[in-house]
Amino acid sequence: MNNTVFSVIDNTVRIARNNEDFCEEDYKNSEGLLICGKCHTPREKFLDFDKTSKFYERYKNHPFPVLCKCRKEQEEAENIRQKQIETQMLIERFRKEGITDENYLKYTFSYDDNKNPNISRACKKYAHNFSYMYRLGKGLIFCGQVGTGKTFYAGCIANAVISQARSVLITNIPSLITKLGYSQEGKNYILNKISYVSLLVIDDLGVERDTPYSLEKIYEIIDTRYRSGKPLIITTNLKYKDMKTDENTSYRRIYDRILQMCHPVAVLGESRRSQKAQESSDFMNDFLGLNQF
Ligand SMILES: [Zn+2]
């Protein structure tokens, strides 16, 4: 029995010795222990066995290899570097899987023109405190006219949350409904995804066709997310007060769930799309020397 234990220890020490990188500057101290020539801390030590222990007799004069200070620091730095690489790979995977429409990749806070500083501040605060919001299960619903930047803000939050190595899915109802119409396997896959991602973003709620079939599917999507207890962010042209007062049963059960999960954010202001179109038109008129429209 003793021999087996000893041979396990001896073998472990032998492997550790084989992996050591000895350098010429290393030297022995007065106790006969090897000292690192770079950081001058021990690379060996005697283990503190109890004098009555069976190991004491065998190993009392036996130096065991240990990591000196500089090698320990090197190993820790390597572990940190490895962890950073793994986190980076995870972030890239989450971005690839969560943002399938590459237009959303451009929606980041660094591109924010800050024309709506209150909203920008609120969105940054939400993204920055996402772990807390996640624990509360609190999402947002961005309401406002077409082109006011609702999707941009939701996209900024989605990208910021992915950068924290959290999974996100940014999508829209028509795309989800199509996927729910696939085989049972495909349907289960998308329902699982709706449940497990840390943040689900549904862009442009309200533009889909309101057939009984699609309303049933929308309810299935929203209810699946609701039961996960995780945050949901929605952008919509629907009016918040209409969502609160709609008496149609099919809509009511959808909106009730959404209003429980999502805090309303009104994105006001003129349409950025028409503003951009106007700027582009002004530029062409100037350039061509026209002034017709
Ligand atoms: Zn050293």
Explain the overall architecture.
The chain has twelve helices and nine strands. By secondary structure, the chain is an alpha/beta fold. It folds into two domains: 2-73, no CATH class; 99-276, 3-Layer(aba) Sandwich (Rossmann fold). The protein is 55% helix and 12% strand. It has helices at residues 2-18, 54-59, 69-98, 117-128, 130-136, 150-163, 173-180, 184-196, 212-228, 240-245, 249-261, 272-288; strands at residues 27-28, 34-35, 44-45, 64-65, 139-143, 168-172, 199-205, 232-236, 262-266. The model has no long low-confidence stretch (mean pLDDT 91). The chain is elongated. Strand 1 (27-28) and strand 2 (34-35) form a beta hairpin. The protein has a five-stranded parallel beta sheet with strand order 6-7-8-5-9. The structure holds zinc ion. Zinc ion is lined by residues 36, 38-39, 68-71.
Features:
293 residues, alpha/beta, Rossmann fold, five-stranded parallel β-sheet, two-stranded antiparallel sheet, 12 helices, 55% helix, binds zinc ion
Helix share, percent: 40-55%
CATH class division of the largest domain: Alpha Beta
Written as H for each helix and E for each strand, in order along the chain, the element string is HEEEHEHHHEHEHHEHEHHEH
The poorly predicted ranges are none
Q: What would you give as the CATH superfamily of the largest domain?
A: P-loop containing nucleotide triphosphate hydrolases
In spatial order, strands of the major sheet run 6-7-8-5-9
What is the averaged pLDDT score?
91
Number of domains: 2
